[in-house]
Amino acid sequence: MPRLTVPAQPYPARSRPATSRRPASVGSVDADRWPDVARLPKAGRGRTVVARHLVRKALKDLSLLAPDGVGDAAAPTGSVLVLRDPDAFYRRIGSAGLIGFGESYMAGEWDSDDLPGVLTRLATHVDDLVPAPLRGLRSLWLSARPSGDRNTPDGARQNIHRHYDLSNDLFAAFLDPGLTYSSAVFHAFPARFASLEAAQHRKIDRLLDLARVGAGTRLLEIGTGWGELALRAAARGARVTTLTLSAEQAALASERIRAAGLADRVEVQLRDYRAAEGRFDAVISVEMIEAVGAEYWPSYFGALRGALAPGGRVVLQAITMGHRQMLHTAATHTWISKYIFPGGLIPSRAAIAEHSAAAGLRTLADHGYGPHYAETLRLWRERFTAQGDAVAALGFDSVFRRMWELYLAYSEAGFRSRYLDLRQIVLTEGTAR
């Protein structure tokens, strides 16, 4: 795999005004790269006091807070949260809520030797963490999503670039050899000793089967990744057009396709889904709807319907959340939208059903695979942490590595707590009967 140049700033963090320097005891953080991690916010005393009271009580009620006095010299034990700098931890949460919670982890102000375990407990009890009479105060910690993150054609290109163009070598450090960056489907559980590569191929083959892809099928893939699905479809004899906005992914996918001798069957296009051309027997889009944004779901499903030839099938693999949770998240700037997936929003099954029907598509099948994603994320997280030195050698600093450890554990917890689900959905032309 070719070595790629790592961006000077792996992930641009959005700064907030009115901050002060973090205590030197916490460690050195590049303030240009991570402004909101390097400096503590000037949270009002009242907000910090409220955050300390509510968060401390919630953590203690769930038996998630390590005993007082466990400091930097002590290793965290069990599924508990260890505060390295309690004052900074509560101050960040008092200023920015869950964004501050994530930034505090990035800064090294709290830790755990079972990060997904702690986060799973929190996700399971998320609706109970704040007493009912005080839930109206949540609005004090929420901010609107930045208008610059909207998925206009130019905005979508920038949002995809900020995540998927970090470095192909970074993703190769923790993905399977086929570089499949979506949930696998395992043969059986527990999957601790399962082959991730085999589980990814099982997932891809299932999607191709659902779309009835075979010799001569005209297939449109929206969201190329690094080309594994296109390769397996072409090996069946399909003619594949695959779209991506990631220049790094397009280059490596094209290289892999040429190396496999399948360039005559696969065309990789650096193109927005809204600019798709042609009609196809099958359309497959794997975990791409999450990057579309609610504002553009009508355009997305319209593009799916417009690309479908009579009698064809659309197959989606999509992360979903509850509808109420989706509506709340859609209006809120979160730690994930700030640092990991700008402009992204996980849909609900109801939203998918509504927008697909409005575009003239009806649902033929809808299958759930949430536990499979939890296992996939566990394997990715374990591989990522094991490759810490290799990731550092690519130019990604300790704040970035902690950010991605939290992202992978946070996502795993979402599926383990069933706050999130994974669906494979088959659509075709026509209205529901």
Overview of this protein structure:
- The structure is a single chain.
- By secondary structure, the chain is an alpha/beta fold.
- The protein has 2 domains: about 20-145, no CATH class; about 150-430, Vaccinia Virus protein VP39 (Rossmann fold, 3-Layer(aba) Sandwich), CATH 3.40.50.150.
- The chain is about 40% helix and about 15% strand.
- The chain has 16 helices and 11 strands.
- The chain has helices spanning about 35-40, 45-60, 85-105, 115-125, 155-165, 170, 195-210, 230-235, 245-260, 295-305, 325-330, 335-340, 350-360, 370-385, 390-395, 400-415, and strands spanning about 20, 40, 80-85, 110, 220, 240-245, 265-270, 280-285, 310-320, 360-370, 420-430.
- Strands 7-6-5-8-9-11-10 form a 7-stranded mixed sheet, with helices on both faces. Strands 1-2 form a two-stranded antiparallel ribbon.
- The longest helix has 21 residues, at about 85-105.
- The chain is globular and about 65 Å long.
- Residues about 1-25 and about 70-75 have low confidence and may be disordered.
Question: Which keywords apply here?
Answer:
433 residues, alpha/beta, Rossmann fold, 2 domains, two-stranded antiparallel sheet, 16 helices, 11 strands, 15% strand
Protein topology:
Elements: E1 19-21, H1 35-38, E2 39-41, H2 45-61, E3 82-83, H3 86-106, E4 110-111, H4 115-124, H5 153-164, H6 168-172, H7 196-210, E5 218-222, H8 228-235, E6 239-244, H9 247-259, E7 266-270, E8 280-286, H10 297-307, E9 308-321, H11 323-330, H12 335-339, H13 349-358, E10 361-368, H14 370-386, H15 388-393, H16 398-416, E11 420-429
Parallel strand pairs: 5-6, 5-8, 6-7, 8-9
Antiparallel strand pairs: 1-2, 3-4, 9-11, 10-11
Helix pairs in contact: 2-3, 3-16, 4-16, 7-8, 10-13, 14-16
